[in-house]
Design brief:
The protein is mainly alpha-helical. The chain has a single domain, classed as Hypothetical protein af1432. The chain has ten helices and no strands. α2 runs antiparallel to α3, α3 crosses α5 and α5 packs across α7. It is globular and about 45 Å long. Bound molecules: fe (ii) ion (2 copies). The site of one fe (ii) ion has 6 residues, from α4 and α5.
C-alpha cells in the first residue's frame, strides 16, 4: 500500500533526467508557505505543486494537477495547474518577480507559448488566482537538495486535505491510478 509520503521518499526523491528531484524542492516550498502563515490548503498545494515532474517535465503543472485531482479539493488542483503559467508573469503587488533562472533557461527575450498566455489571462480573473500565485511566490529555487525530507510537519495537513485511497496510490482503480503506477515503476517493460 503506497502512501503519498512513500512517493516523496521514493520516486519523488529521484532526479533522473530532471534538473532537480521534486521532493526536497516541494518540501522546502511548503515550509516557506507554512512559515508565512498560509492556509492549510495553500501549504498542501505548495507541497504537491511539482509532482508532475515525476512524470514529465513539459507541462508539469497540468500533469501534476491531474495526478492529484481525485484526492484534493478543486481549488488545490486548479492552483497546481495554473502555477506553471503564472511563473512567467510578475505580480509586483505580492512581490513576485520573473525568475532569473527563466532568463537563463529560455533566453532574455522569451515570449511564452500562446496557451500559457491564455492560461495566465484566465487565472488572472479567476477567484482562485491567489492560490496559484502563492505557489509561485513560495516556489523555492535556491533550495538545498541534500536537506533531510522533513515530512512529519505536514502529516496533519495531508491527513486533513489529501484523501489518501485505502488501497494505496496506483491501486485504487481511479482514473489516474496508472499514472501513479508509472511513477512507481518507470522501468517496467509494459
Ligand atoms: Fe513548477
Ligand atoms: Fe516548483
Amino acid at each position: 500500500m503506497k502512501t503519498l509520503f512513500d512517493f516523496f521518499r521514493g520516486p519523488f526523491s529521484q532526479k533522473g533526467a530532471l534538473p532537480f528531484a521534486p521532493a526536497p524542492h516541494m518540501v522546502q516550498s511548503a515550509m516557506r508557505a507554512l512559515e508565512s502563515g498560509a492556509p492549510e490548503e495553500t501549504v498542501l498545494a505548495c507541497l504537491l505543486h511539482d509532482v508532475g515532474f515525476a512524470l514529465h517535465a513539459p507541462d508539469h503543472g497540468y500533469w501534476g494537477a491531474q495526478l492529484v485531482a481525485p484526492y484534493v479539493s478543486g481549488k488545490v488542483s486548479w492552483a497546481i495547474r495554473h502555477h506553471q503559467a503564472l511563473r512567467f508573469y510578475p505580480d509586483p503587488e505580492v512581490g513576485y518577480e520573473y525568475p532569473e533562472s527563466y532568463r537563463k533557461i529560455f533566453g532574455p527575450d522569451y515570449v511564452p507559448e500562446p496557451y500559457i498566455e491564455q492560461a495566465y489571462r484566465e487565472a488572472r480573473r479567476h477567484r482562485w488566482y491567489m492560490e496559484a500565485r502563492l505557489i509561485t511566490l513560495h516556489d523555492e529555487y535556491s533550495f538545498d537538495p541534500s536537506a533531510p525530507l522533513a515530512l512529519e510537519q505536514f502529516e496533519d495537513i495531508v491527513g486533513r486535505h489529501f484523501r489518501q485511497p485505502r488501497e494505496g496510490l496506483g491501486e485504487d482503480g481511479s482514473a489516474v491510478a496508472h499514472m501513479w503506477r508509472t511513477i512507481a515503476h518507470p522501468n517496467r517493460p509494459l
